[in-house]
Amino acid sequence: MSLTESLAQTVGRSGISAGGATVANLSQALSAGSLTAAELADFHLARIDAINPQLRAVITVSPDAAAEAAASDKRRAAGGSLGPLDGVPVLVKDNVSAAGMPATAGSPALLAAAGGDAFLVGRLRAAGAVILGKANLSEWANFRSRPSSSGLSTLGGQAVNPHGTGRSPSGSSSGSAVAVAAGLVALAVGTETDGSIVSPSAACGVVGIKPTLGLVSRTGIVPISAAQDTAGPMARTVADAAALLTAIAGADPADAATADAASYATDYTGFLDASAGAGARLGVWRAGSAQANSATLAVLEAALATLRSQGAELVDPVELADAEKLFEPEVAAMTHEFKHDINAYLAGLGGEHPADLDGLIEFNNRHAAEVLSHFGQELFEAAEATSGDLGDPAYTEARAAASRIARSGLDAALGVHRLDAVIALTGHPAWLTDHVLGDYHGWATSSPAAVSGYPSITVPAGLVSGLPVGLSFMGPAWSEPRLIALAHAFELARSRGRS
């Protein structure tokens, strides 16, 4: 069965297709009684049963999903719905803890770990969402080895991009993107340190929001870098991503970075403005995709034409000074941060598991036939070789350099040109999965926003030989409302242009 045929499957009695399911129409069907949460959960669990063996998007399904759906139906029958997400299934990336489902990061080293709900999972439950299960990912969120294969984990196998035979889903939130693209679920949570939400979203043709650092709590999430880590929504539409962000955003006393979130977290669906492009000033960062081929650049030109047709004013091009110099200090900083942060995380984690990064390395060596069969653990070893001391001058200089380059480039472009957002192609079309040479990293544009801690949103912008390409909107800290409005308006305009 083709992807198109599979997405046409109807959800129970509702008349809604798997590929057309949204928070709005599912919530309406649940309220009208043409669908129950139990039927909806059963439908998605059956799709996972049938399709996941080929796609490897899901590591595990929740044993409590049916009970959560039944509880939603009971609430609704009593007139006590918790809102638009009540009864709607959500997949959570498997580096996020949920009661009864430890955050494994795709590694058997954490299979016996014990943890309750991550803060964001608690917020999802409070909104009535059904936690359907855990999505596959690049093992250790792609911070174990170089080279590596995006979407490959020991526990989940190799996640597959549904848009092309043998094509990579990109990563590290690979399973989340694949699951949404294939209609296994309408909503999924991913995490990003640099590109891990926006890259797989773009490669799989879905919407991904990388929030401002501190808008969404990291409590209960396996860390890489507290300076860059964030969770965020992945969905088929900007409206659905906004609804999911509304549920998970907010201050968490256990995550100091979220202190300001209380002032900014809001109902993001209120910013879905179809006319937001009119009068918007957008800067086009062409240098980020300078290596793109002509077919991919044609997607950019078509997107720019769509934006102009909406009444947007384009400053083309804008420069992000020294963006090409980000990689070295960013990686140097993250190796220190990973050792510090993973050791602290493991020290506070219940159950049985290695005590620290050195123990993880030793575990992998002992289980090399299973865990290291394709790639090594070079990044683990590089991180272990650092002091892991966040007061170490080698670390503070690297982090300061990375932050300075990223923020000064974006701040200057946004400020000098009085921009609402900087836009760029998110990355190139999906490459072929390769378990010998690893991922093909041609070019991507996630780093300036990721290292700055600023928000970015990727929206499907077109196809190259049937493979999706995304357009990113990047703005200053806490600019999610404006970015969501712009992304939504672009999405609608592009949809009208294709109809």
Write the layout of secondary structure elements.
Elements: H1 3-7, H2 23-32, H3 37-55, E1 58-61, H4 65-77, E2 89-93, E3 113-114, H5 119-126, E4 130-135, E5 152-153, E6 157-158, H6 174-181, E7 187-192, H7 198-204, E8 207-210, E9 230-235, H8 238-248, H9 261-264, E10 281-284, H10 294-309, E11 313-315, H11 327-347, E12 350-351, H12 357-366, H13 368-371, H14 378-384, H15 393-416, E13 421-425, H16 447-452, E14 456-464, E15 467-474, H17 480-498
Parallel strand pairs: 2-4, 2-7, 10-11, 10-13
Antiparallel strand pairs: 1-4, 3-12, 5-6, 7-9, 8-9, 8-14, 13-15, 14-15
Helix pairs in contact: 3-4, 6-7, 11-14, 11-15, 12-14
Descriptive report:
The protein is an alpha/beta fold. The protein has one domain (3-498): Amidase signature (AS) enzymes (Alpha-Beta Complex), CATH 3.90.1300.10. It contains 17 helices and 15 strands. The model has no long low-confidence stretch (mean pLDDT 97).
